[in-house]
Amino acid sequence: MPLLLNKEVVTDNWTLIDADTADQTGDVIVPLALYVEQREQFDARDTGVALQLNGDDDLNSILSDIDRFPMIAIDFPAFRDGRGFSIARLLKRQGYRGQLRATGDIGRDQLDHLARCGFDALDLNDDKFSADAINAFAEVSVRYQGAADETKPVYLQ
């Protein structure tokens, strides 16, 4: 899957794991439930540990120490599920400064809004990626509301 980081295609060095592959070496992305269950083992690792969140997760267990994670991946299980946008805004408002990555069923028409909500990395499915996808970030020239990328609404600028 192509990874867009800061609107450029890059190589992904992270591996999503589950309970069966928890002994994976290298930088890993861990679902929140698995991280909570095996927190001590993941905190003892010498490699990077990132979280994967979805709309069903209770974020209260990690909000106090979100800065320990260099990356948080937020899964969009279906195109119509917008809870990931809200999770991203919540994390940004809590002061999270690491990489925010959108994964799952995301499409070209969501890319600009994902960036505005604070996502700087977008993991696109092969069938939804094209070289033209990068142009999606520049298609909207005026944005009236404030967001993570520009906090002031257009009428206050």
Strand content: 15-25%
Rg result:
16 Å
Residue windows where pLDDT falls under 50 for at least 5 positions: none
What's the main sheet like? 8 strands, mixed
The H/E string reads EEEEHHEEHEHE
Helix segment tally: 4
Global shape: globular
The total of beta strands comes to 8
Give the gist of this structure.
By secondary structure, this protein is of the alpha/beta class.
Offer a few descriptive terms.
alpha/beta; 157 residues; 18% helix
Describe this structure in words.
With 157 residues, the chain is of the alpha/beta class. 18% of the residues lie in helices and 20% in strands. The chain has 4 helices and 8 strands. It has helices spanning 32-37, 39-43, 83-93, 111-116; strands spanning 3-5, 8-10, 15-16, 28-31, 49-53, 71-76, 99-104, 121-123. The protein has an 8-stranded mixed sheet. 26% of the residues are buried. The mean pLDDT is 86.
